[in-house]
Design brief:
The complex is a heterodimer. By secondary structure, chain A is an all-beta fold. Chain A has no helices and nine strands. A five-stranded mixed beta sheet of chain A has the order 1-9-8-3-4, with no helix packed on it. Chain A has a four-stranded antiparallel beta sheet with strand order 2-7-6-5, with no helix packed on it. The termini of chain A are far apart. By secondary structure, chain B is an all-beta fold. In chain B, the strands form two sheets. In chain B, strands 2, 4, 5, 6, 9, 10 and 11 form a seven-stranded mixed beta sheet that branches. Chain B has a four-stranded antiparallel beta sheet with strand order 1-3-8-7, with no helix packed on it. In chain B, a hairpin with a 2-residue loop joins strand 5 and strand 6. The chains are: A mainly beta, B mainly beta.
Amino acid sequence: DAKTTQPNSMESNEEEPVHLPCNHSTISGTDYIHWYRQLPSQGPEYVIHGLTSNVNNRMASLAIAEDRKSSTLILHRATLRDAAVYYCILRDKGGDSNYQLIWGAGTKLIIKP
Amino acid sequence: DTGVSQDPRHKITKRGQNVTFRCDPISEHNRLYWYRQTLGQGPEFLTYFQNEAQLEKSRLLSDRFSAERPKGSFSTLEIQRTEQGDSAMYLCASSLFGITEAFFGQGTRLTVV
């Protein structure tokens, strides 16, 4: 599995948009980009995933660069409940073990009231 | 269905003792995963099951670790002769076959003293 690079931490103000970057320069053509987040004292929670096209769901949007070597998770209007560690992970769609993923340390998102 | 549940939530044990953790996945999910997470790091894959078959084990899973999923329902993770290095959060997740989103439990925090 290819690896990802994320900033250790980011700060944002409440009710403002947040853009969380992820670099994955060694991504292969069959790798999906997944985002999970982990609130304090909780297990990880699925946020969104995509392959090539930008994706939207009720939680967030995922913007994928044209060369797929980077992506950005967008929280449109951050709330205090969005304070968490956000993980960007790659998964090979051809792999049978779809969760033998390499998780980095993620980005700790701090929301200021 | 209340999601993935893990028991116990916390376990303190003396070095050298055996411990067993239980995971109850979402009922219709046939894939079940175990991860270990240490402070400040992302989850590390340990093993996964498809129904009752254990299909993959990480090199992290030493001989002291064993996991079972009898009848393809709940799963247990046993650690024999615990060491201080085993202190971590043990996370369980489940998913539907062929569906990418995994649902995590809240984890079992193990402290070996």
